[in-house]
Amino acid sequence: MVPKTTVPGRALRSAARGGRGVGGGHATAYGPVGKNGRVTNAVLTSPYVELVRDDWARLRENQPLTLTAADVARLAGLGERIDLTEVEQIYLPLSRLLTFYVAATKRLNGVTASFLGERPEKTPFVIGVAGSVAVGKSTTARLLQEMLRRWPESPRVDLVTTDGFLLPNAELVRRNLLQRKGFPESYDRAALIRFLAEVKSGAPEVQAPVYSHLVYDIVPAESVVVRRPDVLIVEGLNVLQPPNGTARRRNALSISDFFDFSVYVDADAELIEQWYVERFLRLRQTAFANPDSYFRRYAALSDDEARATALDIWQRINRPNLLHNVRPTRSRATLVLTKGPHHRVERISLRKL
Ligand SMILES: Nc1ncnc2c1ncn2[C@@H]1O[C@H](COP(=O)(O)OP(=O)(O)O)[C@@H](O)[C@H]1O
Ligand SMILES: CC(C)(COP(=O)(O)O)[C@@H](O)C(=O)NCCC(=O)O
């Protein structure tokens, strides 16, 4: 199977007509290429090369899976069981690709330092993980963290979620944004950018604020500390969001300016809705049942009531955010994982241009 170049989720056409096998296809900004190898017109095609899962799975190149079924079960936590074959066929090749990027980026930083006549500084390789609420960002990020830790290039891998940079509830209420938690305007973007700038500049210790899903608010006295890891994974709905109007006018940076690689986890909105509702139903027996939970009133709901409540939250908040803010950032990712039913990744699009 020859990889295709497409806009993720929208099949365009194959730019890899030469049939050079997996990895042999090329994405081009100009196409199609004529018999004499010359560009025959200047139609802009996609910067992505697209692989179906079987071709992608082969790129693991005999790399042994070092995660056990027990490790994977622990990563799934209270969620749905994660299929070990999925880990082997999808996430292992991805972690292999990432280690190549980590090594290449280190070399590139060394080249820049030597050009400047400086000593190369150790800066963390930063990976962004984006996608809708309930698409599986946290699970993907945790899997990548565990897998990357097992490679010699990146023994120290930290993970930070952007919910810590949400504005506190009191401030959301003041700005009339409590019903828009997770929308770009509900975050302290400047603080997130400052955090990433400090991490990237090699600061020995950088603190990030913490959000509690239990109390549904920022925890004022808590923080997570990032101490110059080899890799930092930054997971969140809006990590690929470009600066808004005012910020753009001030030439502000994007969060993604600090990324060395980014992953967008994608699926049809109908599937994500189903995963959101299923997770909500499960949370009734666990997190919602905790007396300290902001959502403790949901613990007593019947199945039908819980389903209706979850659907209402999905349709009022998370679905519009997905459609208007999150999904439009998909084309900025280095890699797009497109899932089908049961979280099975069906297509992988890798940016080549
Ligand atoms: N690869 C996967 N295999 C099986 N279940 C998954 C997978 N990824 C996510 N899930 C399940 O889907 C739901 C949403 O995943 P989660 O990682 O919490 O999403 P997000 O961080 O995007 O909100 C959870 O119930 C989780 O257990
Ligand atoms: C906390 C979240 C905004 C996700 O934040 P992220 O870590 O992606 O920045 C989201 O999981 C959430 O709780 N959304 C709010 C929907 C609601 O009001 O229930």
TrEMBL record:
A Pfam family hit: PRK
SUPFAM superfamilies found in the cross-reference section: P-loop containing nucleoside triphosphate hydrolases
* Enzyme Commission number(s): 2.7.1.33
Main subcellular location:
cytoplasm
Residue positions binding ATP: 131-138
Task: Drop me one GO molecular function for this one.
Answer: kinase activity
Q: Which CDD domains match?
A: PanK
State the pathway, as annotated in the record. Answer: Cofactor biosynthesis; coenzyme A biosynthesis; CoA from (R)-pantothenate: step 1/5
Sorted keywords for this record are: ATP-binding, Coenzyme A biosynthesis, Cytoplasm, Kinase, Nucleotide-binding, Transferase
Q: What does the record give as the reaction this protein catalyses?
A: (R)-pantothenate + ATP = (R)-4'-phosphopantothenate + ADP + H(+)
Residue span, Phosphoribulokinase/uridine kinase domain = 126-279
Question: Subcellular localization, per the record?
Answer: Cytoplasm
Which chain regions cross the lipid bilayer?
none
Cross-referenced InterPro entries, in alphabetical order? P-loop_NTPase (IPR027417), PanK (IPR004566), PRK/URK (IPR006083)
Q: Which family does it belong to?
A: Belongs to the prokaryotic pantothenate kinase family.
State what protein this is by name.
Pantothenate kinase
Protein species of origin = Nostocoides vanveenii
Gene name of this polypeptide: coaA
